[in-house]
């Protein structure tokens, strides 16, 4: 007990929340430095130097440099924790305090790593920005995997309980009515003219894919655990991504019914919701059990989700290294959102994930989600000799 107190060790659950708080602080600091600290940041020579290198003439490179540096420091912090806990599974491992303790030292290291990045030259930070793009792609893929696995688990839980069948039906109706309704709204606001070819393409592809995999989910060639509820949820997620992509477009008045969406109040609300979404997505991804269990898309695997729980009583029941890996990816993704995936400039105040690069990233995520869901529907049936657990 004395040793534990000396190490400032806490429970694994509390440790996760502390890491989450540190991550949240960096998100808020990133926003404040990007939008409100130009005068202070421009006094830092390495940031000020970008004003004369032809990168940006309006000072946005200063905010971009701060965003990337904070992200870089966070990535290094979680990478260090990842290395220290790599492969750790035992409850009595001597490395456990490295994950759940040493908090005074960790906070100092965390702050120091972020601070030292402000001495890094701009070309090194630019290289990190390219790496962050790749890491952010992995983060988005992880989000899709977790989303689909969670939907299957909910569907299985409802199917196994007869008294929950009304909820299954109601949930299915809500997802489809909501998805189709929002699709109609998207056509109205973002495709008011036949000349809005790209917006019409985005919305129509999402609609066609949604109808296609919904029909597939009730045919004999799909996995038994799938159904209209799973398809409705995926359809809703893809419609959401399409809406998010359309709102990230640089405004073309001919193809957008403004409807007050450009007002400062709406921007602030959207910005706050986006920040909360980043934090929630990172935390839920880091604490998911998708790496610990068998896939819910496979009926045989889903039936054995609870088996073998007593086989590893000495196990921590978690993967600290994977937890830190997800926060590492989330830190990189945060930089991309605050810079609009662009390394040349940054969005204006109370804007996030804005620009054409963001548009295509979101649409690619939507299409990937649809295709991956279709694969989960047919793969266990087509490739019967393969183990999808």
Structure commentary:
With 389 residues, this protein is an all-alpha fold. The chain has one domain. 67% of the residues lie in helices and 0% in strands. Helix 5 crosses helix 8, helix 8 crosses helix 15 and helix 10 packs antiparallel against helix 11. The longest helix has 38 residues. It is globular, with a radius of gyration of 23 Å. The two termini are 41 Å apart. It is a multi-pass membrane protein.
Brief summary of the model shown:
The protein is built from 15 helices and no strands. The chain is globular.
Topology diagram in text:
Blueprint: H1 2-6, H2 12-36, H3 38-41, H4 45-48, H5 60-84, H6 96-100, H7 103-116, H8 122-159, H9 165-190, H10 197-216, H11 228-247, H12 264-286, H13 299-303, H14 320-339, H15 356-382
Label this structure with key terms.
389 residues; mainly alpha; 67% helix; globular
The number of helices is 15
Average pLDDT, rounded to a whole number, is 80
Q: What's the order of the H and E elements?
A: HHHHHHHHHHHHHHH
Approximately how much beta-strand content do the residues carry?
under 5%
Number of separate domains: 1
Structural class: mainly alpha
End-to-end Cα distance, whole Å, is 41 Å
How many beta strands in the DSSP annotation?
Answer: 0
Net shape: globular
Q: Helicity, in percent?
A: 55-70%
Low-confidence stretches: 300-313
Radius of gyration: 23 Å
Main sheet properties = none
């Amino acid at each position: 007990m004395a040793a534990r107190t000396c190490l400032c060790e806490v429970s694994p659950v509390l440790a996760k929340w502390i890491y989450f708080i540190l991550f949240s602080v960096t998100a808020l600091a990133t926003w404040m430095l990007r939008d409100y600290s130009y005068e202070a940041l421009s006094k830092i020579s390495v940031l000020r130097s970008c004003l004369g290198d032809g990168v940006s003439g309006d000072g946005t490179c200063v905010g971009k440099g701060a965003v990337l540096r904070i992200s870089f420091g966070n990535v290094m912090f979680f990478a260090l924790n990842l290395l220290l806990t790599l492969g750790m599974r035992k409850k009595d491992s001597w490395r456990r305090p490295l994950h759940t303790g040493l908090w005074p030292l960790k906070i100092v290291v965390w702050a120091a790593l972020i601070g030292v990045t402000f001495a890094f030259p701009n070309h090194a930070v630019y290289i990190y920005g390219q790496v962050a793009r790749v890491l952010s792609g992995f983060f988005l893929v992880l989000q899709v995997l977790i989303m689909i696995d969670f939907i299957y688990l909910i569907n299985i839980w409802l199917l196994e309980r007869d008294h929950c069948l009304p909820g299954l039906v109601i949930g299915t109706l809500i997802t489809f009515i909501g998805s189709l309704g929002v699709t109609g709204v998207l056509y109205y606001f973002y495709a008011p003219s036949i000349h809005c070819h790209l917006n019409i393409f985005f919305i129509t592809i999402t609609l066609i894919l949604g109808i296609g995999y919904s029909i597939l989910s009730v045919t004999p060639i799909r996995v038994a655990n799938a159904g209209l509820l799973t398809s409705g949820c995926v359809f809703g997620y893809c419609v959401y991504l399409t809406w998010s992509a359309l709102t990230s477009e640089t405004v073309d008045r001919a193809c957008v019914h403004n409807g007050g969406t450009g007002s400062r109040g709406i921007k602030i609300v959207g910005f706050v919701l986006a920040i909360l979404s980043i934090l929630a997505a990172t935390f839920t991804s880091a604490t998911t059990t998708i790496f610990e269990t068998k896939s819910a898309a496979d009926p045989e695997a889903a039936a054995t989700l609870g088996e073998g729980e007593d086989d590893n009583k000495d196990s921590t029941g978690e993967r600290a290294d994977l937890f830190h890996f997800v926060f590492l990816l989330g830190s990189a993704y945060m930089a991309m959102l605050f810079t609009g995936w662009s390394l040349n400039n940054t969005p204006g105040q109370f804007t996030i994930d804005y620009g054409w690069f963001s548009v295509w990233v979101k649409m690619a995520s939507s299409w990937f989600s649809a295709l991956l869901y279709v694969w989960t529907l047919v793969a266990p049936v087509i490739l019967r000799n393969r183990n999808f657990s």
